[in-house]
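[scheduler] slot 2 assigned
[scheduler] job type: sequence-to-structure, two independent chains
[scheduler] chain ordering preserved from manifest
[runner] begin chain α
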Amino acid sequence: MKILYGVQGTGNGHIARARMMASHFARRKVDVQFLFSGRPADKYFDMECFGDYQLRKGLTFATVNGAVNSFKTLLEAQPLQFVRDVRGLDLDGYDLIVTDFEPVTAWAGRLRGKTVIGVGHQYAFGYRNVPQAGVNLRNRLIMKMFAPVTHRLGLHWNHFNAPIVPPIINPAEKRAGVVGNHVVVYLPFENQQRITESLKSFPDTRFIQYSPELVDSQDGNISLRKTSLHGFKRDLCSARAVMCNAGFELISECLHMGVPVLAKPVAGQSEQLGNAAALQALGHARIMYEYDPAIIADWLSHPEAPRPQRYPDVAAAICDWLLSGNWHDTSELVESTWQLALPAGHRVFST
């Protein structure tokens, strides 16, 4: 089987999932062509596992100071380039198209009548039991039409009585035997200078602040770090707590290891607002909807560690499901993956 696998590259979470999928495809000797869109070519890093991958402009949401900016989003959209990318994508020779909310591959497959499988967190929001917030007609249309698929497989922290599976994380990744005294800060959609200055008001706490726009340096009690794969993972596994936006993948890794989280959803971003609602409903993390030093101070004084969720190797199970060709039926996949999770992952919400 030859697979075209599209990955939304705006955030690192989609790419982190793709790394796990790439590893399992390689073990099964599956021929996979990866395509990424959503960020400039020079902003990708640690991509060796994807081989000779393709890049496209794609579509993404522009943010300013922690909130979605509609005008900037439209200004940067380049719809004609998107249409050219969709129409120019060669789908000949592929047996299956898989997309993790990547629009070029999804629309190219749709327009040519190909089977497109959506595997990703966003595909969980189509079920009514999944917590949602900040959703209006525009957001519903975006979630439905941004990367349309033939069959969908959503990922989330709980099954919410819906046919979705646990997060794709690396189950071998464990919290360090000796936890450090630092707090990892990853708020890439915020003003980084503002974050740094704010963190200086907590001189007794050591912070490691990550962002793609930072340069490795030290500023008082704050270690500034440019986003990287291995350095970030090392600091994450030994962190006493994490402060981040309400993206799915990083918080999944924290929940897997039982790391306390303070999450700030991006304003106007319905996925992150829905994640915040789910975290509150599950009791898994503290939420601040506006950047507020008072909330940070209270959280730092007693960060509550969630019970480690110990998610199973979901990527391996999804690979086998994709290769089976039985894409109409997810029941066995859903049941088997949740059975492998610890009881904390089995909290059932009433329909």
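[runner] end chain α
[runner] begin chain β
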Amino acid sequence: MSRTVQPAGQAGREALLQEGYRRAAGLTWRYGTTYYWGAALLPKARRRHVHAVYALCRLADDIVDDQAVVDRGDTVATGAALEAFADRFRTAVTAEEAGDPTGDDPVMAAVAATVVACGIDRECFDRFFGAMAMDLTTSRYETWDDLCGYMEGSAAVIGEMMLPVLEPTSPMAQEPARALGLAFQLTNFLRDVDEDLDRGRVYVPQEDLRRFGVDLTAADGSGRRATPQWRAFLAFQIARNRELYALADTGIALLPGRSARCVGAARVLYSQILERIEAADYDVFSTRARVPTWRKATTAARIMVAGPPTPPVRTALPGPGRTADHVAPYPR
């Protein structure tokens, strides 16, 4: 059984935090390279806070995905593991706020220090853990609004968590930050359709699949092919995704220089995934769209020198139902 200890003095505390931030950076480098290269444009003191927030979200997501395999579908056991993790987080933050940090988990100590130092609203994490718990019971979303209800806690709220780290110059930056969180996650969903199907999950609206004549879960496996119907469906979702990026772009000017470069780099890199999906003729089943590491590094370097890119021109949605409600305002 792991024992709880109080690090010996300030030196022990600093060593624990240093190790925690180092591990958080490692997790970001391994699993979230776009975040990693974007954060590289921030001053070191703020960069580590991006790593800490990402690490917390990554570890929680791993519990839902990996522990579910260990538990062989026992959602009660996986839910208990997720709740225990959330409790450890809340305990660590409460202790940090009281000025009496305890514990021997370096990453959790770093996360708690970041939450308190940056003044991140703890309610954001309640919404986040709530969305993670949804993955244990919900595998399909009927409408775009239904999917946004899930992404409210799994994606939009990540933008809210990151915003205090970025030190915006106006409160009007909040909605664009939320939109960027949604845009990033929708990009992941479109890229990872095949992988999510293997987990028994579909993170695209069922009503849209029907509208375009796509059955991803067809018994004969025909749903996992880049048919004309699938290409039309995915083109529609990519256009919706770009509308979210366009809304997010309006917030870049509300960030100080280094933060604007950080967000601009991450935005460019993530949106390039959509370009690679298009270049592969919308086939996300036989290959995974990736932006190579060298391109991420050179993009970050270019933006560091030249500044964030000029927001692209908004384009109309393709396909049936080209109305604004298909890029609907997401629920709060």
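[runner] end chain β
[qc] chain β: The two ends are 40 Å apart (CA to CA).
[scheduler] slot 2 released
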